[in-house]
Design brief:
- It is built from eight helices and no strands.
- Residues about 220-240 have low confidence and may be disordered.
- The protein has helices at about 5-10, 10-55, 60-70, 75-80, 95-115, 120-150, 155-210, 220-240.
- Helix 2 (about 10-55) runs antiparallel to helix 6 (about 120-150) and helix 5 runs antiparallel to helix 7 (about 155-210).
- The longest helix has about 55 residues, at about 155-210.
- Helices cover about 80% and strands about 0% of the residues.
Length: about 240
């Protein structure tokens, strides 16, 4: 029994199950292909971007260099998060190390959310697709039994169609679920490795800027008041 036969010979429940399985299959394969392309690029980008960062002479030049390698924008948000803003607010409370920890943690969470996108869909499809196929199987068997009861006698032509429909639903549910589960597990390993590399880079970056504040860029909003304050102090010294 082919797919057109399911739509022509099946009832509303069989057609609904078939449409659900096809929709989940298409969605999962789109996510699988997209994430395979994304994680392949991300693995290379993180490795090259971190290497380029530590070979740069300054943080400003490192930001420009990393921007050329970081095609998926995974490392650059961590570097840009090190600009300490929010003077006069609770965000500026605490020492430099605490502020950097908070900023880098928030930026890291946003990057990880980007890498995790699509994992929930794969997990959901892998979990419910077999049960959707099982629903089609149970309904097909029920359809076969009602056909036998209506005919009043057992014949192969009354049983073969609904039973074949039921078996196709079972196989379809497994065919949809297995790639989704495999993709979820494989991608989870790649995401874990990239996450570990990003966490290590964020930790090293925090240690660098916390112990060497001269490497920390001064925000533009804070530079003007600083220059004004310095000029005011110089004028006060001259008046004395």
């Amino acid at each position: 029994m082919s797919l057109p036969d399911l739509f022509s010979q099946g009832d509303a429940v069989s057609r609904l199950v078939t449409v659900l399985l096809l929709s989940m299959s298409v969605a999962s394969w789109v996510v699988i292909l997209w994430k395979a392309w994304l994680l392949r690029r991300a693995t290379a980008d993180v490795r090259r971007s971190t290497a380029a960062f530590w070979q740069s002479p300054s943080l400003e030049q490192a930001r420009d260099t990393v921007g050329a390698f970081d095609r998926e924008t995974l490392v650059l948000p961590l570097i840009e998060a090190t600009q300490l803003n929010g003077a006069g607010s609770l965000a500026a409370a605490g020492n430099r190390s605490q502020q950097l920890t908070r900023l880098l943690r928030d930026a890291l969470h946003r990057v990880i959310d980007k890498l995790q996108f699509g994992q929930v869909l794969l997990a959901t499809v892998g979990s419910i697709a077999p049960f959707v196929g099982l629903l089609g199987t149970v309904w097909g068997i029920y359809h076969a039994l009602t056909g036998i009861a209506a005919a009043g006698q057992i014949s192969i032509d009354k049983v073969a169609g609904p039973v074949g429909e039921a078996l196709i639903m079972t196989a379809g549910g497994l065919a949809v679920a297995i790639p989704a589960v495999l993709g979820y597990n494989v991608f989870g390993r790649f995401i874990g490795r990239i996450e570990a590399d990003l966490e290590g880079f964020a930790r090293d970056l925090r240690e660098l800027l916390a112990h060497h504040p001269e490497a920390l860029p001064v925000p533009a909003a804070a530079s003007a008041p600083s220059r004004a304050a310095a000029a005011h102090e110089v004028a006060g010294v001259g008046a004395i």
